[in-house]
Amino acid sequence: MSEKELIQQIRKLPAEARQEAADFVEFLSQKYIQKPAVTDSEDKKSIVESSFRGIWKDREDMKDSTEWVREIRKSRWSD
Considering the domain boundaries, does residue 3 fall inside one? Predict the structure, then answer.
């Protein structure tokens, strides 16, 4: 279908359907056209730069994560 034919078909639609078509075109535009140009090096950060690094470092109850999980399981699933 040519661009001209597509426009003609859209013009034949009721107002609500034209709005749906416009919304869909906007969605496709965001998906395929308007992607920000980000290089691989900008996109990937080191774990050291992550804001989540060390989030639980001061938790005394999680010094040994394996033991912590074991205790949680015992408290929730034991009879």
Answer: yes
Per the CB < 8 A criterion, the answer to whether 35 and 43 are in contact is: no
Q: Is the residue at 59 inside a domain? A: no
Count of domains for the chain: 1
Q: What is the pLDDT of residues 21-46, one digit of tens each?
A: 999 999 998 888 866 665 655 567 77
Mean pLDDT of 1-22: 93
pLDDT of residue 79: 62
**What is the rounded distance in angstroms from the CA atom of residue 44 to the CA atom of residue 76?**
38
The answer to the question of residue 16 being in a domain is yes
